[in-house]
Amino acid sequence: MFYNYKTIYGYGCKEIEIKRSRFIGHAKPVQNEDEAIKFINSIKSTHKDATHNVYAYILGERDEIQRYSDDGEPSGTAGVPVLNVIKNEGLKNTAVVVTRYFGGILLGAGGLIRAYVKSAKLGLEAATIVEKILFKSVHITVDYTLFGTVQNDLLKNNYLIKDIEYADKVTLTVYVQYDKKDDFIEHIVNLTNAKSFIENGSDVYLYKKGDKYLE
């Protein structure tokens, strides 16, 4: 199970021209090989008139799955460089496709490698590199007399309050980093003198962009 890892936020696309050839870098987060293949095939379908649709993707907690294709470019000049860009960025569950429309000028092996590396990086930048962190949703139910104490403590310590439900008692749903949930629960028990009902909810991954967390 990932507690946190680097990936990309969503689909990104960026085009550049190098010696009359058009290079389009596409990048997308993927959770399994079926998603990766579906993404690659969608780009190939959209750009079926392209000279090449080079791709690479990495999947798994330990990068168990690594695939790439030169799609007709000289061996070692396209797919591997794109794969290495993903690896060098430390990204997981990420797929990249670089589309090339040949412009009539040969780039040579070194030129091709540089072009595919640059295009892959631009695609990843357009997709926005983020950190993905595993959280546990924790439900805290307290009497109204303790609500202010608990809420103020959560806000003071920058916990993420997802929801507050007002009924006979108040239930706060809080996102807590997964590896810190036990300490958090102990803290709330002490804060409320054990006069709270605490229940673990679902696991959820949040994206961290700067100082903000996004679902």
Describe this structure in words.
- With 215 residues, this protein is of the alpha+beta class.
- The strands form two sheets. Strands 1, 7, 8, 9, 10 and 11 form a six-stranded antiparallel sheet that branches. It has a five-stranded antiparallel sheet with strand order 2-3-6-4-5, sandwiched between helices.
Q: Based on CA inertia axes, which overall geometry fits?
A: elongated
- If you compute it from the alpha carbons, what radius of gyration comes out, rounded to the nearest whole angstrom? 23 Å
Distance from first to last alpha carbon: 18 Å
Fraction of residues in helix: 25-40%
Instruction: Please give the oligomerization state of what you see.
Output: single chain
Strand content: 35-45%
| Unreliably modeled segments | none
Largest sheet properties: 6 strands, antiparallel
Give the beta-strand count: 11
| N-to-C series of helices and strands | EEEHEEHEHEHEEHEE
- Helical segment count: 5
Class derived from helix and strand content: alpha+beta
What is the fold's blueprint, element by element?
Layout: E1 4-8, E2 12-18, E3 21-29, H1 33-46, E4 52-59, E5 65-69, H2 79-88, E6 94-101, H3 108-127, E7 129-142, H4 144-156, E8 160-166, E9 170-177, H5 181-191, E10 197-209, E11 212-214
Antiparallel strand pairs: 1-7, 2-3, 3-6, 4-5, 4-6, 7-9, 7-10, 8-9, 10-11
